[in-house]
Design goal:
It is a single chain. By secondary structure, the protein is mainly alpha-helical. The protein has one domain (about 5-190): Triger factor/SurA peptide-binding fold. It has 7 helices and 5 strands, in the order αββααααααβββ. The strands form 2 sheets. The chain has a 3-stranded antiparallel beta sheet with strand order 2-1-3. It has a two-stranded antiparallel ribbon with strand order 4-5. The chain is flat, with a radius of gyration of 17 Å.
Protein backbone atom coordinates (compact mmCIF):
# COMPACT_ATOMS: atom_id res chain seq x y z
CA UNK A 1 0.00 0.00 0.00
CA UNK A 2 1.52 3.31 -1.03
CA UNK A 3 1.63 6.34 1.26
CA UNK A 4 -0.29 8.31 -1.38
CA UNK A 5 -3.16 5.84 -1.38
CA UNK A 6 -3.24 5.78 2.41
CA UNK A 7 -3.29 9.56 2.55
CA UNK A 8 -6.18 9.81 0.09
CA UNK A 9 -8.33 7.49 2.17
CA UNK A 10 -7.24 9.15 5.40
CA UNK A 11 -8.42 12.48 4.03
CA UNK A 12 -11.78 10.96 3.12
CA UNK A 13 -12.18 9.52 6.60
CA UNK A 14 -10.93 12.59 8.44
CA UNK A 15 -13.16 14.91 6.48
CA UNK A 16 -16.20 13.36 8.13
CA UNK A 17 -14.88 11.71 11.24
CA UNK A 18 -12.67 14.53 12.51
CA UNK A 19 -14.06 17.61 10.81
CA UNK A 20 -17.69 16.45 11.06
CA UNK A 21 -18.99 17.64 7.70
CA UNK A 22 -16.70 20.53 6.81
CA UNK A 23 -16.78 19.03 3.16
CA UNK A 24 -17.02 18.42 4.94
CA UNK A 25 -29.67 25.23 27.33
CA UNK A 26 -29.43 21.81 28.91
CA UNK A 27 -32.27 22.28 31.43
CA UNK A 28 -34.64 20.18 29.34
CA UNK A 29 -32.00 17.61 28.37
CA UNK A 30 -33.60 14.17 28.66
CA UNK A 31 -32.22 11.96 31.40
CA UNK A 32 -29.58 9.59 30.05
CA UNK A 33 -29.18 11.57 26.84
CA UNK A 34 -25.80 12.59 25.50
CA UNK A 35 -27.55 14.85 22.99
CA UNK A 36 -31.05 15.71 21.75
CA UNK A 37 -32.17 16.89 18.34
CA UNK A 38 -35.81 17.88 18.63
CA UNK A 39 -37.68 14.70 19.53
CA UNK A 40 -34.65 12.56 18.68
CA UNK A 41 -32.06 11.61 21.26
CA UNK A 42 -28.61 10.09 21.34
CA UNK A 43 -28.32 8.06 24.52
CA UNK A 44 -25.25 7.99 26.68
CA UNK A 45 -25.35 4.21 26.29
CA UNK A 46 -25.06 4.40 22.49
CA UNK A 47 -22.26 6.96 22.75
CA UNK A 48 -20.41 4.76 25.21
CA UNK A 49 -20.81 1.75 22.92
CA UNK A 50 -19.35 3.58 19.91
CA UNK A 51 -16.41 4.93 21.91
CA UNK A 52 -15.69 1.46 23.30
CA UNK A 53 -15.77 0.00 19.78
CA UNK A 54 -13.06 2.45 18.72
CA UNK A 55 -10.93 1.68 21.78
CA UNK A 56 -11.32 -2.06 21.21
CA UNK A 57 -10.26 -1.65 17.57
CA UNK A 58 -7.17 0.19 18.79
CA UNK A 59 -6.41 -2.50 21.35
CA UNK A 60 -6.88 -0.04 24.20
CA UNK A 61 -8.83 -0.60 27.44
CA UNK A 62 -12.35 0.82 27.48
CA UNK A 63 -11.39 2.95 30.49
CA UNK A 64 -8.80 4.86 28.46
CA UNK A 65 -11.16 7.20 26.58
CA UNK A 66 -10.20 10.86 26.71
CA UNK A 67 -12.53 13.78 26.24
CA UNK A 68 -11.32 14.43 22.70
CA UNK A 69 -12.37 10.94 21.55
CA UNK A 70 -15.75 11.18 23.30
CA UNK A 71 -16.45 14.61 21.79
CA UNK A 72 -15.35 13.54 18.32
CA UNK A 73 -17.58 10.48 18.45
CA UNK A 74 -20.60 12.40 19.71
CA UNK A 75 -20.08 15.14 17.12
CA UNK A 76 -20.05 12.51 14.39
CA UNK A 77 -23.23 10.91 15.74
CA UNK A 78 -25.02 14.28 15.78
CA UNK A 79 -23.85 15.06 12.26
CA UNK A 80 -25.13 11.73 10.96
CA UNK A 81 -28.57 12.41 12.48
CA UNK A 82 -28.69 15.88 10.91
CA UNK A 83 -27.69 14.63 7.47
CA UNK A 84 -30.21 11.79 7.70
CA UNK A 85 -32.98 14.30 8.37
CA UNK A 86 -31.86 16.57 5.57
CA UNK A 87 -31.78 13.63 3.20
CA UNK A 88 -35.37 12.72 4.05
CA UNK A 89 -36.47 16.32 3.46
CA UNK A 90 -34.74 16.46 0.09
CA UNK A 91 -35.78 13.00 -1.02
CA UNK A 92 -32.17 11.82 -1.13
CA UNK A 93 -31.27 8.21 -0.39
CA UNK A 94 -28.23 6.00 -0.67
CA UNK A 95 -28.55 2.31 -1.47
CA UNK A 96 -26.52 -0.42 0.16
CA UNK A 97 -25.16 -1.18 -3.30
CA UNK A 98 -23.53 2.27 -3.54
CA UNK A 99 -22.05 1.88 -0.07
CA UNK A 100 -20.64 -1.52 -1.01
CA UNK A 101 -19.22 -0.11 -4.23
CA UNK A 102 -17.48 2.75 -2.44
CA UNK A 103 -16.06 0.38 0.16
CA UNK A 104 -14.78 -1.88 -2.62
CA UNK A 105 -13.10 1.15 -4.20
CA UNK A 106 -11.35 1.86 -0.90
CA UNK A 107 -10.28 -1.79 -0.72
CA UNK A 108 -8.70 -1.48 -4.16
CA UNK A 109 -7.00 1.83 -3.33
CA UNK A 110 -5.22 0.74 -0.17
CA UNK A 111 -4.79 -3.00 -0.65
CA UNK A 112 -7.69 -4.78 1.03
CA UNK A 113 -10.29 -4.51 3.76
CA UNK A 114 -7.83 -4.90 6.63
CA UNK A 115 -5.83 -1.94 5.34
CA UNK A 116 -9.01 0.12 4.98
CA UNK A 117 -9.98 -0.67 8.55
CA UNK A 118 -6.54 0.34 9.77
CA UNK A 119 -6.85 3.74 8.11
CA UNK A 120 -10.29 4.38 9.54
CA UNK A 121 -9.23 3.26 13.01
CA UNK A 122 -6.48 5.87 12.88
CA UNK A 123 -9.29 8.41 12.42
CA UNK A 124 -11.19 6.98 15.41
CA UNK A 125 -13.73 5.07 13.32
CA UNK A 126 -14.21 1.43 14.32
CA UNK A 127 -14.67 -1.21 11.57
CA UNK A 128 -18.34 -1.55 12.48
CA UNK A 129 -18.80 2.20 11.93
CA UNK A 130 -17.20 2.45 8.48
CA UNK A 131 -20.37 1.89 6.47
CA UNK A 132 -22.11 4.70 8.39
CA UNK A 133 -19.29 7.08 7.48
CA UNK A 134 -19.40 6.06 3.81
CA UNK A 135 -23.17 6.53 3.81
CA UNK A 136 -22.64 9.99 5.32
CA UNK A 137 -20.18 10.87 2.58
CA UNK A 138 -22.50 9.72 -0.18
CA UNK A 139 -25.55 11.43 1.30
CA UNK A 140 -23.60 14.67 1.65
CA UNK A 141 -22.51 14.48 -1.98
CA UNK A 142 -26.06 13.91 -3.19
CA UNK A 143 -27.45 16.60 -0.89
CA UNK A 144 -24.94 19.07 -2.28
CA UNK A 145 -26.21 18.40 -5.78
CA UNK A 146 -29.83 18.69 -4.63
CA UNK A 147 -29.25 21.94 -2.73
CA UNK A 148 -26.98 23.63 -5.28
CA UNK A 149 -27.21 21.78 -8.60
CA UNK A 150 -25.27 24.41 -10.55
CA UNK A 151 -22.46 24.83 -8.02
CA UNK A 152 -19.03 23.27 -7.89
CA UNK A 153 -18.04 20.63 -5.35
CA UNK A 154 -16.89 23.20 -2.79
CA UNK A 155 -20.06 25.26 -3.14
CA UNK A 156 -22.21 22.17 -2.85
CA UNK A 157 -20.37 21.10 0.27
CA UNK A 158 -20.91 24.53 1.78
CA UNK A 159 -24.61 24.35 0.94
CA UNK A 160 -24.88 21.10 2.91
CA UNK A 161 -22.93 22.59 5.80
CA UNK A 162 -25.19 25.64 5.98
CA UNK A 163 -28.36 23.54 5.69
CA UNK A 164 -27.20 21.19 8.45
CA UNK A 165 -26.43 24.14 10.71
CA UNK A 166 -29.85 25.65 10.07
CA UNK A 167 -31.53 22.33 10.80
CA UNK A 168 -29.52 21.99 14.01
CA UNK A 169 -30.83 25.35 15.16
CA UNK A 170 -34.38 24.45 14.12
CA UNK A 171 -34.21 21.26 16.19
CA UNK A 172 -32.60 23.13 19.12
CA UNK A 173 -29.80 20.59 19.27
CA UNK A 174 -28.41 20.35 22.79
CA UNK A 175 -25.60 18.34 24.35
CA UNK A 176 -25.22 17.23 27.94
CA UNK A 177 -22.73 19.59 29.66
CA UNK A 178 -20.72 16.49 30.57
CA UNK A 179 -19.59 16.30 26.96
CA UNK A 180 -19.22 19.93 25.92
CA UNK A 181 -21.26 22.56 24.11
CA UNK A 182 -22.72 22.20 20.62
CA UNK A 183 -22.26 25.04 18.15
CA UNK A 184 -24.67 24.80 15.18
CA UNK A 185 -22.68 27.46 13.33
CA UNK A 186 -19.63 25.21 13.16
CA UNK A 187 -21.31 21.80 13.58
CA UNK A 188 -18.80 21.00 16.28
CA UNK A 189 -18.54 20.36 19.99
CA UNK A 190 -16.69 22.95 22.04
CA UNK A 191 -15.26 22.85 25.56
CA UNK A 192 -17.39 21.77 28.47
CA UNK A 193 -19.17 24.70 30.12
CA UNK A 194 -18.07 26.18 33.45
CA UNK A 195 -14.64 24.59 33.19
CA UNK A 196 -16.00 21.06 33.54
CA UNK A 197 -12.79 19.69 32.07
CA UNK A 198 -12.85 16.17 33.55
CA UNK A 199 -13.88 13.62 30.90
CA UNK A 200 -17.11 11.78 31.78
CA UNK A 201 -16.79 8.20 32.90
CA UNK A 202 -17.88 5.65 30.34
CA UNK A 203 -19.95 2.62 31.11
Amino acid sequence: MTSLRRSRLAVAAAAFAAAALLLSGCADQQAGSAATLGDDRISEQSLTAQVEEVLAAKGQPVTSADQSLVQQTLGRMITIRLIDRLAVREGVDVTQGRIDEQLANYDAQVGGREAVEEVFVQENVAPSQIEAIIRLQLLAQDLGIALNPSGGAEEQGQAVFVAAGALSEELDTTVSPRYGTWDPATLALGPTPNDLSTPPALG
